[in-house]
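ok trying this again, last paste got cut off
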Amino acid sequence: MTGRVPANGTLRRLKALVCLGWPVEQLAARSGVDVEWLLTRESGKKFTVPTEVAAAVSACYDELSMIVGPSPEVREYGQRRQWRPPLAWDDESIDDPAARPDRGRPRSTRSPAELVEDYEWLIGGGVSREDALAQLGVTVNAVHKAYRRARVAS
């Protein structure tokens, strides 16, 4: 007999990967899990998944959570549903049903120095330039402008 765990963390991980542009077909192939079925569950209903499913999705998430997926359409799909990307979730609490994502501040309130700091943190962590821009939701021009403004302010 297999153990079961609350599905909260499993769903959050899948939705976060969709927000990065990972199509459900690719997530299913990588994890061996019926991702589409999981994502169609009613969000307000409590349900559990086998521990093997949770572990497979978690491994897939660990592999892909810092890489922007190949589909802008899938990314937009997740954003329209207001699903949160990986950076919105704390790794230690993503499985906690009471946990809430970090909604962040509106982009307009991020200072140039903060944008530069976030960008450099991602790059320093091994994220590609394109993926860092996508995760921050900014263009390369915005980062260049932030660097110039941060230099002027210091």
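PB: full thing came through this time. The chain has eight helices and two strands.
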